[in-house]
Queue: 2 jobs
Job 1
Amino acid sequence: MDILEHGLQKMGYTLGDRQREQFEVYSREILDWNRKLNLTTITDYEKMQVVHFLDSLTLAQAAKPGTLENGCRLIDVGTGAGLPGIPLKIVFPSLKVTLLEATAKKTEFLKYLVSVLKLDEIEVVTARAEDQARLGKYREAFDIVTARAVTQLAALAELTLPFCIIGGRCILPKKGDTAREIEEAGKAVETLGGTIAAIQNIDLEGLDDNRHLVVLEKTAPTPDKYPRRSGMPEKRPIK
Ligand code: SAM
């Protein structure tokens, strides 16, 4: 875990023994389950530390100061193998995390992982965001909403902003040239009660693929009609 620890130090964090062990177990389990599930194309132990773990932890740079350390509620939409939700939970143990994932085989892995990593205050939900965001317990209930590698920003706004409390943030990692994607999402973000507050560049050693965080602030309630039914946000993004 040297690469991870070195990168984390640069961000101002250090790992304790338990956290180091948790990341080691997490890597092993991803590689093990990857033989039957399509969890990731990154199967190199060292690469995983940067491309999955450090990349997930860069989200901390866009969170409101003190929120991650003080038990705020975070939902990770389309979490797949638990990214970025699990690395964040390991480094910030007081976080209350919901891992939301539509594919039951992946949530089976996540439930197993939560038990072997002995994580508490973390729930794994098998559902689509469009359905889950309509439930009272989940709607406008999270201080931080994230979703990595799920879909284009206009659709992503509809899958994330409904979960966010007013005054909270959606922190959405992206890579490559997304200028057009961001421009095209403007109407959707505004319609759903948000503003594009910042685009924060991310510098990760060895990666030159223009990683950045798109930060949406929730400034007004999301109208009741959103999110639309399952599949619609991607099929017909708000324009
Ligand atoms: N976030 C993980 C990562 O960065 O490695 C997984 C990314 S994977 C490419 C996208 C995941 O989002 C898939 O596991 C998929 O099942 C899930 N997903 C896509 N649309 C979803 C939705 N509307 N609600 C819940 N999960 C969704």
Job 2
Amino acid sequence: MKLKKILSVILVVSMLFSMASCTANTEQKPENNNDIDTVFTPGTYEGEAEGFHGIIKAKVTVSETEITDITVEHTETAGLGDKAIDKIVLQIKENTSLDAPIVSGATYSSNGIIAAITAALKEAGADIDALKAKTIADNNKTEDVEKTADVIVIGGGGAGLAAAVSAHQNGASVMVIEKMPQVGGNTIISGAAYNAADQGRQSLLPMTDLEKQTVEDLIDAEQSDSEVKEWQETLKKEWEEYLDSGKTHLFDSPTLHKLQTYNGGDKLGDTKLVSILADNSLPAVEWLEDLGMKFTDHVFTVLGGLWSRAHKPEKPLGTGYIETYMDYIDKNSSEIELMLETKANSFIVENGAVTGVNAESNGAKVTLHANKGVVLASGGFGANVEMREQYNTLWPSLKDIKTTNHTGATGDGITMSQELNASIVGMEQIQLLPMGDPVTGSLSGNIEQGVQNRIFVNKEGNRFVDEGARRDVMTKALMEQTDSSMWVILDKHSYPTSDTKNNFNESIDSLVEAGRAFKADTLEELAKQIGVDADNLVKAVETFNETVDGKTKDAFGRTLFADKIDTAPFYAGARVPTVHHTMGGVEINENSQVLDVNGQIIKGLYAAGEVTGGIHGSNRLGGNALADITVFGRIAGESAALGK
Ligand code: ADP
């Protein structure tokens, strides 16, 4: 005991000396000094800090001079935040340095893990400045490379990976390049809802009178496009068959999906593409299932989705899609190569056809030749503020609005295609959601569990919109409220237990604990916690409940209802407008071939996903993006492999 005390006194004294000398030396020595003797008090120390999805906890074990072990507890996004954490932990541990660079696209997770380890090291008595000044060598420098594959895919998000798998299934060797250090793009951090008319799963849901009315209104609505009129005729027949059958479950069909998609985009979408999307979305679900992807049996109405046809993956966020594709790619790695941190800059064009891609990786030149075709799947430009400002004509300035997008959504593919004279359509159509986290703009922390069981109230505690409406309608209404801010209000129906999780794998209790959601036994108490007028909130909920009971018509024209909000505990979560999806992009035909400004096919170039334009018109239905990227990713991969 005595010896231990003496030893620790010696250690502390020597530590003080060396810390003092470090501090003194830092001033004289050049900034990046790797010769500093970092001294710790041996032991295991804990530190924690805020990540993207909550608290990151680090347990750091140190000897006198080295970090010997780091274990971490966190709930960061699988495939993205967790990859960043692993990379940073390894660098910090191997180098006993805090100079680990932030992983691109995972800034919050990177900062969180560095801060958590820093906190633990402070407890260990470390000189933090000295550890930060100790540089980690960049071992990433690569040589120039030149490679050839049948199909080159630009972008490793949902559309690109679907295209890669599909191209391979159609006999091609494939090279996928992804500019970020990890695959996934916006897909992996999305809510992941996937729309497909699926009468099997929908047989579990009732059909309300208001929903019946919606179908009949769609059949009778005035339409001018001849193809859309045909859809109405088909829907009429399908509807009559359904009524004759005496079924009572929720009706749906690809035709209803088409009409809602087309009308929901103000009739601006390309009818051919809308048709392909709706007709192929269920077959693409089955294709994903054949690849090993699992969806729950329950379909729901996602925000702005207008109908209960959203399929929910069993795995959180978009991780299920990306893992499914990556499993396939891993199993076929001799024929599908993936190059991370490899950014496409331009197309190689020979005799008027696209035959490859000029790219770069860590400063090295990467030249890729395609025997058959190039698939552009580089996503949208939601994270590119300059491009948003350049094209936005429909919203007030979007300069200061945050985004749900990952940092790589910068519209590179659109700019690259313009150099080829590609037709670019609908660029002004930028989708905002009323569902951004007030701090980060991300979708995480969103407490809604589907459209039917929650209301929105403004800072005064009043409802202000049909919460089942289109996304643009809800966001415009939100922008007119005080501070463009609202509360999502719901009850136990959405969270039967306190550890029930939202779509982002966050339990309601963890959100409450982190101050990102509020919980109370009465609406009055909830109103007090969130600072809204209690009388207004109680009245808003009471009126809503009367409408659920069918006693009154909804003042905002809402048609989607399930349960009343009447069972404690009650919950509230704050939300603000956020940039979500860019509907504009390169124009494609039914084979996903890119068209030029004269409507001619650009040989060798295919595109799929958010980089394309023209499908969703002025407003994309919630749940249609995953269907779009899967359906057209699959088509683009097949077309490129078969040289269509
Ligand atoms: P989609 O839903 O259309 O698949 P995502 O955002 O999910 O769109 O994926 C697009 C992917 O393309 C992202 O991972 C992004 O980092 C990647 N990407 C964007 N620009 C480039 C580029 N110039 N080179 C390589 N990859 C890119």
